[in-house]
Amino acid sequence: MDGAGPPFVEQVKCAHPDMRIEVWFEDEMRFGQQGTLARVWAPIGSGPRVVEQTEYEAVYVFGAANPTTGESAAMVLPTANTRLMNMFLAHLSEQVAPDVHVVLVLDNAGWHTGTDLEKPENLTLLPLPPYAPELNAIEHLWDWMRSSHLANRAYLDYDAVLDAGCDAWESLTPDRIKSLCATSWSV
Please, which residues have CB within 8 angstroms of residue 113's CB and are 6 or more apart in sequence? Predict the structure, then answer.
């Protein structure tokens, strides 16, 4: 990142002068057999039928994305808690280049703020204000994944839900991530 950026980036840059600073966005998405209904194409006047399940198997996709480069990291996990957030942060920390320090924008979920949270040296966590999910650019990825890959489907069991989450994340390309997560305020 060259030139002046937002104040939070400049503060991190002063603390890590030999590192390249990148802004990433992180969040979790829960989905499963309860599913999501989405619009479908159908002839005018028809009443298309869509599958809706009532079982309760679900997973959480922990994801982080860089809207500038399209890089991303994700883990599909059985629940969301501090222990699994620590695992995800360690995974993300290993994914970034050695000369990069990441400003990770995230919400104030309990597992993001707990005293047991282990913050890797190459990540600075930047919590968003409460009740402001629209500021987290990765929310657009969740909307796209739900509408394009996860809606209007039935899943046989936990393994099918897990596979669907992995497939949906793996369908993301760097260009799609850049397109969906672009923000004017983070660069």
Answer: 127
Mean pLDDT of 168-183: 94
Residue 130: pLDDT over 70: yes
* Amino acid found at 29: M
Domain with 20, as residue range(s), is 7-32+52-181
Domain containing residue 172: CATH number: 3.30.420.10
Residue 38 lies in a domain: no
CB 62 within 8 A of CB 80: yes
More confident residue, 155 or 105: 105
Residue 187 located in a structural domain: no
Mean pLDDT score, 141-167: 89
Angstrom CA distances, 38 to 28, 116, 119, 153, 168, stand at 20, 38, 37, 10, 16
Tell which residue, 129, 120, 142, 126, has the closest CA to residue 186: 126
Q: What is the pTM of this model?
A: 0.85
